[in-house]
């Protein structure tokens, strides 16, 4: 990977739009990104790794407000590691509970589909 990427390159790699990347920076999810001459954003590897983690949080449906809290704690430094760990543990439990509920729903759908197939065969 090149040492610094433009906003368009990061958008292509992450699937986010340039607008979303600027929004994430504006609301504090992404720390202010380094700038090249002319003021163009230049994302470092560490920025990309953080964005990848934010995408994981988003995939697990973590609300932006919680992501902002996590980002603020992260920016504060290592003294907040216990708080960040607790946040992630709590969120993980919520994700696991949602996955269990989804699995029960999948089973109910499969049973209903099986019932309808049996009715159609009769």
Give structural notes.
The protein is an all-alpha fold and about 120 residues long. It has one domain: Orthogonal Bundle (Multidrug-efflux Transporter Regulator, Chain: A, Domain 2), CATH 1.10.1660.10. The protein is built from five helices and no strands. It is elongated and about 75 Å long. The relative contact order is 0.09.
* Topology pattern, helix = H, strand = E: HHHHH
**Radius of gyration over C-alpha positions, nearest whole angstrom:** 21 Å
Name the CATH architecture. Orthogonal Bundle
**The CATH top-level class label:** Mainly Alpha
Determine the CATH topology: Multidrug-efflux Transporter Regulator, Chain: A, Domain 2
**Outline type:** elongated
Strand element count: 0
How much helicity do the residues have? Answer: over 70%
SS strand fraction: under 5%
CA distance, first residue to last residue: 60 Å
Largest sheet: none
Low-confidence stretches: none
Query: Helix/strand-derived class?
Result: mainly alpha
Number of domain units: 1
> What integer is the average pLDDT?
95
Put simply, the count of helices is 5
InterPro entries: DNA-bd_dom_put_sf, MerR-type_HTH_dom, MerR_fam, Tscrpt_reg_MerR_DNA-bd
Domain HTH merR-type: 4-73
Organism: Duganella phyllosphaerae
GO molecular function: DNA binding; DNA-binding transcription factor activity
């Amino acid at each position: 990977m090149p040492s610094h990427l433009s906003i368009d390159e990061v958008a292509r790699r992450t699937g986010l739009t340039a607008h979303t990347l600027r929004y994430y920076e504006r609301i504090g999810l992404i720390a202010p990104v380094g700038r090249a001459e002319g003021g163009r954003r230049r994302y470092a590897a560490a920025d990309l790794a953080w964005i990848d983690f934010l995408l994981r949080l988003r995939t697990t449906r973590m609300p932006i407000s919680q992501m902002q809290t996590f980002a603020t704690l992260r920016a504060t430094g290592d003294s907040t590691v216990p708080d960040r760990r607790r946040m992630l543990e709590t969120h993980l439990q919520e994700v696991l509970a949602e996955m269990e509920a989804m699995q029960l729903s999948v089973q109910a759908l499969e049973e209903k589909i099986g019932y309808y197939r049996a009715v159609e065969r009769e």
